[in-house]
Amino acid sequence: MTAPALTTAEPAPGTDRQVAGKTKKTRLFLLGVLCTAGWLASVLIGHNVDCGPELHRVGLAVHILALVLSFGTILAVDWLGLLWLLGKVHMHESGKLEAAAKPLIWGGLVLLLASGALIDPDLANPVTAIKLGCVLVLMLNGLSIAPAMHQLMALPAETRFGGLGRRLRARLMIALTISQACWWTAVLIGLINSTLRRWSGT
């Protein structure tokens, strides 16, 4: 008589997927905390530390370059996304560009925060506060859209926007609207503030 074979409990279906989902959510949460902490540090340093005119000029130059880098890349990614919405390109082409452009976008945002600490933001000015708020919203929006992009890239390349689920379509459109609204608001406020400073000689 042979001994009964030892059996190991098989994980319930979907368990691995649930664990992976929780891990991703935790990682996104921690990245969100890191982004918020970096933004807050930049604002506080810029408001409380006088870096002097030389560092201010350097910071302003880097700030403009970082803005061109990140905003220009975002425009290219969103343009290709618009072409996908219109059925001009395959979905994965937009996703591949977004993945390739991610280091440029986030690198530009990091430079924006670092240089922003050197240009003495006027927190008493509500318009400047709106610009700073837009930068924070941009970073958090970029993190929050990651799960939806993973869902999108898992679909066949021939998938059209109209073929997506209603919830996914809404999530993508909300993220795109927030991205464009915050970028254009931050850019325009930055240009206005810079022009006013030149006119006032400060």
Structure, described:
The chain contains six helices and no strands. The longest helix has 35 residues, at 166-200. Mean pLDDT is 84; it is low at 1-9. By secondary structure, it is an all-alpha fold. The chain has helices spanning 15-48, 52-85, 91-116, 126-144, 146-153, 166-200. 77% of the residues lie in helices and 0% in strands. The N and C termini lie far apart (94 Å).
Outline:
This protein is mostly helical and 202 residues long.
Distance between the termini: 94 Å
What string, H for helix and E for strand, traces the elements in order? HHHHHH
What spatial form do the alpha-carbon principal axes imply? Answer: globular
Helix tally equals: 6
Assembly annotation: single chain
Instruction: Tell me the fraction of residues in β-strands, as a range.
Output: under 5%
SSE arrangement:
Elements: H1 15-48, H2 52-85, H3 91-116, H4 126-144, H5 146-153, H6 166-200
Helix pairs in contact: 1-3, 1-4, 2-3, 2-6, 4-6
Features:
202 residues, 6 helices, mainly alpha
